[in-house]
């Protein structure tokens, strides 16, 4: 399986479609998931191409996980969460829908289930939630 540079996250990285950006560094980019399964659900991606964990370089994996940890702390603080769930899917059979490596970071509250997938966010609400996370990140 090869990398398709027309995938939606590659287009976000090139600025061809909009995203609610939360953070970036030299190697990674973070933005809100448009179909959030929890308030504050965001996605961490490498800036360089790879489909998923299976073809990622050690450098891409390391950079992503360092940013995942940073975002885990940030979303927990922004939403007063007691925990955080990190999800990452590989190939269609593994549940992957967008074929650019990404980590889901989901703040979690005791006893609150994730929402079912597939419901588009209200963009004003998404921006408010992003503002809370950006405020924590400074
Ligand atoms: P998966 O590949 O199964 O990890 O799922 C892809 C995720 O990307 C889903 O949670 C979608 O809601 C999310 N998603 C798809 N398109 C966009 C987009 N344009 N901006 C932000 N998130 C997106």
TrEMBL record:
Location of the active site: 102
Gene Ontology BP term (one): nucleotide metabolic process
GO molecular function: catalytic activity
Start and end residues of each HIT domain: 8-115
Motif (Histidine triad motif): 100-104
Protein name per Swiss-Prot or TrEMBL: Histidine triad (HIT) family protein
Native source species: Shimia haliotis
């Amino acid at each position: 399986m090869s990398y398709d540079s027309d995938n939606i996250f590659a287009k976000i990285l090139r600025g061809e479609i909009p995203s609610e950006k939360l953070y970036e560094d030299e190697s990674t980019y973070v933005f809100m998931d448009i179909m959030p399964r929890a308030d504050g659900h965001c996605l961490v991606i490498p800036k360089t191409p790879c489909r998923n964990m299976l073809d990622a370089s050690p450098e891409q994996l390391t950079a992503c996980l360092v940013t995942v940890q940073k975002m885990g702390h940030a979303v927990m603080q922004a939403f007063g969460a007691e925990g955080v769930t990190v999800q990452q899917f590989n190939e269609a059979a593994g549940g992957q829908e967008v074929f650019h490596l990404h980590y889901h970071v989901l703040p979690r509250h005791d006893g609150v289930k994730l929402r079912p997938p597939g419901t588009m966010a209200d963009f004003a609400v998404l921006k408010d939630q992003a503002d809370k996370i950006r405020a924590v990140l400074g």
